[in-house]
Amino acid sequence: QYGVAENTVIIFSSDNGHYLGEHGLFGKWLAHEPSIRVPTIIYDPRLPAEIRGQRRQQMILNIDFAPTMLEMAGVAIPDKMQGKSLTPLLRGNPDRWRDDWYYEHDYIHGGAIVPCQGVRTNRWKYIRYYNQQPIHEELYDLQSDAEERNNLVIEKKYQDKLAEMRKKWSDFRKGLK
Fold first, then answer.
1. Angle at 140 between CA 136 and CA 146, to 5 degrees
2. Residues 30, 61: Cα–Cα separation, whole Å
3. What is the rounded distance in angstroms from the CA atom of residue 133 to the CA atom of residue 94?
4. What is the tens place of the pLDDT at every residue in 54-111?
5. Phi, psi of 152 (to 5 degrees)
6. pLDDT digits (tens, 9 = 90+) for 18-46
7. Is 26:33 a contact under the CB 8 Å cutoff?
């Protein structure tokens, strides 16, 4: 009736995931996939029909929603805004997308939750529980171990990958200061 349907973008998302027994846990506090994954569906009727309904494999974050909405509304995205507009992904031409990102959950809830930080790439995940001695680490190859059951930290053949992921974690931390 009002002629807005053909120009109305719908973004559906929700809170992050929730452990339901995975890793023997309940809740949503740590960096494993059941806890950090966030479902997202974007409907944009302005896109050509042949590229609608496609599933993208790129990693998006909740900080991408604000720049996306600004760009879709024709508003300039402030330089200091975190996140990236999802419109290149929606159009099917992501020239340069993120290959990794940093995760942190520093809330300890009176000591009931172990704080952790980590880095997620397209294939690898590194988790660091830093508030304990010795520091506990986890390293997963998500390509061969999507359920994160085999911590590779102590495996000799993965020590170079562990060092690489530790460096990524350190570089992200330096960038936050």
1. 135
2. 16
3. 42
4. 888 899 999 999 999 999 999 999 999 989 999 999 988 777 889 999 999 888 878 7
5. -95, 5
6. 776 677 767 777 888 888 888 899 999 99
7. no
- Rounded-to-integer distance, Cα 105 and Cα 25, Å: 16
Q: How far apart are CA 42 and CA 88, in angstroms?
A: 13
79 to 76, 83, 101, 169: CA distances (angstroms):
9, 10, 19, 24
Q: Which residue has the tokens 């300039």?
A: 76
- 129: which DSSP letter? E
Compute the CA torsion angle 57, 103, 172, 92 (nearest 10 deg). 20
Residue 126 pLDDT level (bands cut at 50, 70, 90): very high
